[in-house]
Amino acid sequence: xxxxxxxxxxxxxxxxxxxxxxxxxxxxxxxxxxxxxxxxxxxxxxxxxxxxxxxxxxxxxxxxxxxxxxxxxxxxxxxxxxxxxxxxxxxxxxxxxxxxxxxxxxxxxxxxxxxxxxxxxxxxxxxxxxxxxxxxxxxxxxxxxxxxxxxxxxxxxxxxxxxxxxxxxxxxxxxxxxxxxxxxxxxxxxxxxxxxxxxxxxxxxxxxxxxxxxxxxxxxxxxxxxxxxxxxxxxxxxxxxxxxxxxxxxxxxxxxxxxxxxxxxx
Amino acid sequence: xxxxxxxxxxxxxxxxxxxxxxxxxxxxxxxxxxxxxxxxxxxxxxxxxxxxxxxxxxxxxxxxxxxxxxxxxxxxxxxxxxxxxxxxxxxxxxxxxxxxxxxxxxxxxxxxxxxxxxxxxxxxxxxxxxxxxxxxxxxxxxxxxxxxxxxxxxxxxxxxxxxxxxxxxxxxxxxxxxxxxxxxxxxxxxxxxxxxxxxxxxxxxxxxxxxxxxxxxxxxxxxxxxxxxxxxxxxxxxxxxxxxxxxxxxxxxxxxxxxxxxxxxxxxxxxxxxxxxxxxxxxxxxxxxxxxxxxxxxxxxxxxxxxxxxxxxxxxxxxxxxxxxxxxxxxxxxxxxxxxxxxxxxxxxxxxxxxxxxxxxxxxxxxxxxxxxxxxxxxxxxxxxxxxxxxxxxxxxxxxxxxxxxxxxxxxxxxxxxxxxxxxxxxxxxxxxxxxxxxxxxxxxxx
Lengths: 266, 447
Description:
Oligomer: heterodimer
Largest sheet of chain B: 3 strands, antiparallel
CATH architecture of chain A: 3-Layer(aba) Sandwich
Largest interface: A-B, 27 and 22 residues
Shape of chain A: globular
Strand order of the largest sheet of chain A: 6-7-8-3-9-10
CATH topology of chain A: Rossmann fold
CATH class of chain A: Alpha Beta
Strand content of chain A: 25-35%
Structural class of chain A: alpha/beta
Distance between the termini of chain B: 40 Å
CATH topology of the largest domain in chain B: MetI-like fold
């Protein structure tokens, strides 16, 4: 057990499931992108989705806050529940869902506005702050939560796009947590960052685990091993194997997983 | 890489000269191919430069012609005359109210003042010839003086009055006084009077304020461009007010909200086709719909603005859609991922980022509308209108139609006015393009 020196979480089965997917299929037009995926994601743990390019891990991640709705040709069937509520039920409000399930994207995408406005945008549209001082508090709290406060406290009015890549990505994380989500989805959040910025973001993810349920898609198996407690391996649209991270990396059951983590393909 | 593998590489080590000579890139044939590639490169650059130079010289020639023809229009010949505001002519019944003043024989007043200066012009023919030295506008000028100050009646004043266009043309050198008398519009007697005035210092070129403040006239020395400018401004204001919000809203709907299906594809094809429809067709549409079906006023900027709005709409929609499409999808995802609604995503993030492009497209389409003539001919904006329009419902004309009408007039004096009006139109277009550039710089944001 050398890959994860952090305190070991209780096994997933003992924790309450935050997100439950069962029998999820996704189609892009005629293409069957996700095939019968079922997975439970427990509260306050980091789950990593790994797999070769085009295996559907990002597609599946985007089902969890219905970002796939924005793609006209995309069709999702099956059952995905957040706290036992079907998020694809007809009466579900996607605006509310996305406020509860935040997202951080592959490329840092701060709005071309000030650092303050970037973080304050979510609380503003959801009406989370009653006053300016309350909003200031939320922004400061979110920036501290994203370990960015010390670096930007004296220049909140400068543009968010002027920060370095790693800082921009932490700004996007601050922006996501300012809305007080329950789940944060991260789609390869470090793929555009250098190793030092990556280390910062990984540390941050480990801290965020105390308060949020985190699902992270990554190409980097070391990263999955470092930050996650559970790991799911996707291949050609199927969920091949899902288990405690330590088990996946040391004793995978499926030979495809074995092949991927030992670098034979992917 | 080890040292051995470096040395084996054909491109690196100068010590391996013999190995280089064997490279396929170092043979004579390869060198010849390389030379041909460079030659093609140079040829292409020379042709490109020639194309640019040709374009620049054509533009330079055009500007030079317009400037050299047009700059004289901003000065107009005036004559200094001792005007006798004779009570016998102005107040024939002894009345000096404005009605009587307006009814007076002002032509006679001008003629008699001229004959006082040139006693040899008292015969029938001479009185007609001497009267032709002065513009008919002088009568109005003198009448206005008396209306403003009735105490002038009975006095004599020295007044600079406008010269007739034929005299103006000779002073400016646009008409040749050396040709035979019968081929001239100004005969020898008139030339002699003109020279006498010149010798007295009673003939000058003064700044032509009337050209910038007046409206159309039958006489080239009396025309002004202000009526056309105002007509254009009213028309463009209507066009902008209709086409900009409609175009931007249509573009936002089509780009951000509309489902992608056969129906929206059809709409897209139709919008692209509409942008290519000849403008006169829009004029016919305006004639049939706005004038005949809706009974809107003829020649009014309101109707002109509606017609030009129809013409600009597809261009604005296409420009706005392109600008919206150029906003990176990552910004949309960021907003949606935070739980923004589609409308919030558009209004808070996409539209502000697309604004520079939308504004540039809109202003360019407005500049296009400013220069448009054909559709306005169809709705009667080609009428001869001597009043300055006071609102978008008044009959008016626009700058390009004014240019068209002056270019159509046979008098020599209209040539310089036409060129000057083109200059004014070009200045407006340059101004609008400058505003477009400024707006783009002002709203441009990086991401």
